[in-house]
Write a structure and sequence with these properties.
Length: 198
């Protein structure tokens, strides 16, 4: 009986923390016929976990690492992970949903007629200290607009609390956990495009 109650609570908690997808404007159907997107990322004014600002989060984490002398290393890797981990993971996850390359995204496609912007709103990096761990979560807004006319927005979608985990629980690096959240966001987006542009 205890096992049944445990699994029921587990399922409820998973459902409560599940990703929410909300169309803010436009429609995914507007993307029909588009084969490529120039991809841009925006991290301005992101919130991190329970902190009011990203800098407040960094100050807290760096203070805990001062004695070991790894405080500046943490700060550098926190920002480097954007280009080194999050963005490549998003691109890889999105593009592999289209095995024949019928639709693709890339940061180098500056001549593409349409741009896809991924605006990071909130990150919960989670943690993994071996005996106890918590997954990462990412909230982001994906907006597709005409490159030459940014005011022409085809669709804008918020992906709230996209779940990030990886390496079967051996995800000790926060950048790895967070990057999996971007991969999940890209997967959901690609599946949404497939479903709505048949």
């Amino acid at each position: 009986m205890k096992k049944v109650v445990f699994f029921a609570v587990l399922l409820i908690s998973c459902a409560m923390s599940a990703q929410k997808v909300k169309v803010l404007s436009g429609n995914l159907k507007n993307l029909k016929g588009i084969s490529e997107y120039n991809l841009t990322f925006d991290y301005k004014d992101i919130k991190v976990d329970k902190f009011k600002t990203e800098e407040e989060f960094l100050a807290d984490k760096m203070k805990k690492r001062e004695e070991k002398g790894t405080d500046e290393d943490f700060r550098k890797s926190w920002f480097a992970d954007r280009e080194d981990r999050y963005e490549p993971k998003f691109i890889e996850s999105f593009n592999k949903r289209f095995e024949n390359g019928e639709i693709r995204v890339g940061k180098e496609l500056s001549n593409a007629k349409y741009t896809m912007n991924v605006k990071t709103v909130w990150i919960s990096p989670g943690f993994n200290v071996g005996v106890v761990r918590r997954d990462a979560y990412v909230t982001g807004i994906v907006t597709v607009f005409e490159t030459a006319n940014p005011s022409n927005v085809l669709v804008s979608i918020e992906y709230e609390k996209t779940h990030g985990e990886g390496a079967m629980g051996f995800d000790f690096n926060s950048g790895h956990r967070i990057s999996e959240g971007y991969a999940k966001m890209a997967k959901e987006l690609a599946q949404g495009i497939k479903k709505n542009t048949k």
